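Page 47, continued from p. 46.
Same chain as before, 337 aa.
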Amino acid sequence: MAPSLPGKRDLPASQYNVNTYWGRVRQSAEIADPRTLFVSNAGLESAKSLITSYKEGKIQSMTPELWRAKRIVDSTLHPDTGQPVFLPFRMSCFVISNLIVTAGMLTPGLKTTGTLLWQITNQSLNVAINSANANKTTPISTSSMVKSYFLAVSASCSVALGLNALVPRLRRVSPATRTILTRLVPFAAVASAGALNVFLMRGEEIRRGIDVFPSLSPYEKAEAEKEGKDVGSLGKSKKAATIAVAETALSRVLNATPIMVLPPLILVRLQRMEWLKRRPRMVLPVNLGLILTTSIFALPLALGAFPQRQTIQARKLEMEIVEKVGPEGMVEFNRGI
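Result:
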């Protein structure tokens, strides 16, 4: 990350092995660390200055202070633009931003109006997060963003209202099963519309392609640094964009699954207990606690499913890319989050 900061020297991708799933999970946990939200502008500038010094060769090796600076920059700045991501839409704020919305969607006994309002709110937040964290080498137009937003809202509301109307008509299942299915309706709506939202919001990337860069070995990077060469884009690839968007959509579903499934199922069990029956006002705080706990663990597990900086063989992309690096050459691109 931090490729947009000055300097020819590349930062190490992570202090963890991002070629493994658990290494990526640990890296994702740092990007999603809510403590970075409290870093001041002066703290951010100090972190950027420290990283720039490393990239310009003024600091020779990574130190604990440099790793902390990298965590701040990675969680705050967009890797393509170098500009801060608007705070509510950062991955480090994802759990907090989604907490109230998720609790609203999972509120037992929601009527039609409540279902519509919470689904619209959720998709509005999804659009903002997807747009803020997308690959910025291919910008999306305002008209495309608005069109994608309305399509995603229509999809989520249709699924939620359709299933809410269907579940009560299932006569062959027990009342307890119907209750569980009703509580899982928000998951079906969020998972389907969330994946669709990613494809719609980032459809311009698939249509126009995203920038692809040569994947250099440590020796090649060192030589490029010595010669002061800037590693430029090999061109835009639609196939790379398709991979990036599809993996991001899948990671959204992976993130939504435990958050939208476990809390409502656990709450159904808890509501049968005498303690909660005698304290109906505790249902909301218990629900919030379940969602918060699940979200904290689910987000890095989902983000770590795929590397953010994806490396693949050039032969899997367009011939224009293959001709520049050869069929066995390796290239990389920013998947987005």
